[in-house]
Amino acid sequence: SILGFVYVLHGEQAEVARLMAEGVRSQSVSHSKGPVSSSFYEGLNRDLQARLKMTEGKAAIGMPSESCSATCARVHNLVCSPRGFNELNSCVALRRAFADASIPCSETFFGTDLPALQPSTGSLLTNSKLEYTSGCEAAYSDSVRLCPCNTAQQASTDVTMKIKPTVIRALVRMRSQKDARGSDLDVPDPLQAGGGPPVEEAIEDLESGRVQFVTASAGVNCYDTCRSDSETLCQRHWFELINTCDVMKAVFPEFDKCETGIFGRDLPALRRSTKEILVNSDTWAYSSSCGNKHELTERLCPCGRRKGGSSTSETWHTVFNVQATRYFEWQVRYSYFWKAKAGHKGAMTRLLSASQADHLMSEIPTHVAPPWDMSKESYLAYNKPLAVDHWMQKFRPKEDNIMIIDPDCMFIRPANFVVEKGRPIAQQAFYYFSKNPPADPVPMQIYEKFCKGCTFVDPIAVPIIIHRDDIAKIAPLWFQKTHEIRKDIANWPSAWKDSKQSKVGLDWTAEMFGYVFAAAQLGIRHDIWDFQVVPPVHKTQFAPIIHYHVEFPVGNDQKWFKQKEDAAWSAPWPLPSGLDEVGLSTHYAYIHLPFPVLH
Fold first, then answer.
1. Of 190, 329, 487, 527, which has the most beta carbons under 10 Å away?
2. In terms of pLDDT, which residue wins out, 232 or 373?
């Protein structure tokens, strides 16, 4: 045993492994066809276009373990176009593509490598869940993919030319307004407030072709659209300019109705089911995001490259802060296990706030940081900004993309997103900064007192992915802002810490607000994503991370909570029936899976 835990093997580890794959690869059928020669797939490609008659672009059939990006380049010398997956994701299209109307086809599976043929079973599989977006880069050894290919550059050029005059006019107006302000140079224009360049440089970006506008498929976010279509990054500062009925109607001229009374981070977009264009009516509280998506909306995405090229390498380093306690120990060991199991790239380091090393140093990569002196003030969360700042100064990470998580974050899939300097991404927090009722007024009250002069504020929490140069700037101010909030505790209104009046709970969350205000004062704006789920709030596993920080029921009047003394080994087994997908992912597989390895 480890940590004093008595390990009892449940005997269902094979069942756990099966359940982890269920819905994607666990079933088999009796008519398995076995391996097929490469010449068979090549032959299918010869008259594939005649069989499918796609409305846009071409299709291609790949090889086992080959991504659609590689397939499109090899077969047609084109790029994979994510918009085309919707047209191919049906049993009708798959049977036509593989030239056999009798092939069994299942519409109950899901995966980013679907639609495809599964050679081991001879079955065709469609992708049944939009939250598992079919991706150009996905590949699987038992998957022969049906791929949409297109000349993405031409498609994006056509869209860009439609809206370029309108966007240029908006930029010129913005420049005139800036000139009219004269000496008021401390007030940034909307582009810079969104993390973008000055107006003059933005005009140059548009004229030079460094930015292109691309339409996304329904249920696909702009980050994936830009990366897949042209290997660019979504540039969120352009949303301020394209969030108008005029721009959207230029892109979708066949739709006249434009709804201006709703808001959402996946807007502006087209909702084809209601034949409506939707623009974001509250960009201050719900700023448009590169990472958000909705199964019913087709987004207009700004895809671009920085002048002079990208400042970010595709390297990652994940960190979290803990103390040397039994409570954190199992979370640390499990988190490290899940990260490796999910295939999340890059190093992971435990930032240990302690006066000396502990017994996990040989097992878990660790940086020891001086702990906060609790005799000065009893607030343990000071350790987080202090540890991050100490690590940045002493360790000096070489990786560009720094991911900050909590130890109770469980990797289900890789979350290796790339960020540019000055453009981090982060999870939407449990609160909002909104000027409109009936929103909770407490976050705005805290903002108005402790972030004077800020032109924006982001309601964010971990996970955060940020360029190392940005977190190096934020970390020291993060602690200072947290301390500024805490030292004013005698003047806090009761609602700031009373959970019956507001869910903010500033007596613990001051560190969260400290980070938010530090970033805002430095002018570093975050793109707000949903890349974690929280049981029992979420019922489907649409994100790469599960954050299991709250208590939740597991059936038969039982509950599971990480803070219970026996949490690491007391997840009920077997679980009652009727659990949602997140509950199954958390307990049926991932809580039990590390047992035979770590105990």
1. 527
2. 373
**pLDDT above 70: residue 131:** no
Radius of gyration, alpha carbons of the chain: 25
Q: How many CB atoms lie within 10 A of CB 551?
A: 13
CA pair distance 288, 283, nearest whole angstrom: 7
Mean pLDDT of the chain: 85
Q: How far is CA 68 from CA 27, 118, 137, 196, 495, in A?
A: 24, 15, 6, 32, 53
pTM beyond 0.70:
yes
Q: In 3-state terms, what secondary structure has residue 552?
A: strand
What residues contact residue 409 under an 8 Å CB cut-off, 6+ apart? 320, 335, 462, 463, 532, 545, 546, 547
Sign of the torsion angle spanned by Cα atoms 381, 384, 385, 390 = positive
Task: Write the DSSP string, 279-345.
Answer: EES-TTTS---SS---TTEEEEEEEE--TTS-S--S-EEEEEEEESSHHHHHHHHHHHHHHHHHT--
What is the band of 154 on the pLDDT scale with cuts at 50, 70, 90?
low
Condensed to tens digits (0 to 9), the pLDDT of residues 538-577 reads 888 889 999 999 888 776 777 888 888 778 777 766 766 7
Pairing of strands 211-215, 105-106: unpaired
Q: Which of 231, 242, 385, 371 is nearest to 309 (CA)?
A: 231
Chain centroid, CA 173 distance in Å:
34
